[in-house]
Amino acid sequence: LYRRDIWRDQDIYLEVWAESDSAAGLIYSVTQHFDVPLMAARGFSSLTFLSSAADVIRSQNRPAKILYVGDYDPSGVYIDQDIEAKLLSMAPGCEIDVERIAVTPEQIDTHDLPSTPPKKSDARSASFEGQAVEVEAFEPSDLRDIVMVQIAGHLDQDRLAAIQAVEERERETLASMISTL
């Protein structure tokens, strides 16, 4: 179970945010594998939640990248923009970039995702074009693949290889110490 922090020497601080607990549940195994914090935004996040996230980002002293997974619907398409704007205002001077990695219009077509008409009760429906698609419409393995590719794309592979080599030597040392006990 021993692991080194593979992000410590990376140029960016990375988090994955999901619009809902159910979406977070679908991708947790990937974020856990890469040791990336996973945040469930639960729609438009509270100021308290965002303030805590801004505190963590400020403490990193490096650019922050947030990969966002959310529904493609009248309100859902604004959540990632809302997160970025509020984090930037709460962490002035920090470089924060929020990128929607799912659901996108291209993925709706590529994966032939099932859609529904947007909810008329959503005040943003009047200006929304197209059909609404929930994150859960993805095959779970397809969604995990998208997240895995995006996370891996932000890792400096040379630094990762060096950390993994040190980690392996430290595991061997720990195993040797345990066997002598």
How would you sum up this structure, described in words?
The chain has 181 residues and is α/β, with parallel strands linked by helices. Helix 3 links the parallel strand 3 (64-69) and strand 4. Helix 1 (21-33) crosses helix 5. It is built from 6 helices and 4 strands. The model has no long low-confidence stretch (mean pLDDT 94). It is globular and about 70 Å long. Helix content is 47%, strand content 12%. It has helices at residues 21-33, 47-60, 76-90, 105-110, 140-152, 157-180, and strands at residues 13-18, 38-40, 64-69, 96-102. The chain has a 4-stranded parallel beta sheet, with helices on both faces.
Low-confidence region ranges: none
Percent range for helical residues? 40-55%
The tally of strands reads: 4
Q: Kindly, what is the distance between the CA atoms of the first and last residues, rounded to a whole number of angstroms? A: 19 Å
Oligomeric status of the shown chains? single chain
Task: Report the total helices.
Answer: 6
What amount of the residues lies in strands? 5-15%
List the helices and strands and how they pair.
Blueprint: E1 13-18, H1 21-33, E2 38-40, H2 47-60, E3 64-69, H3 76-90, E4 96-102, H4 105-110, H5 140-152, H6 157-180
Helix pairs in contact: 1-5, 2-3
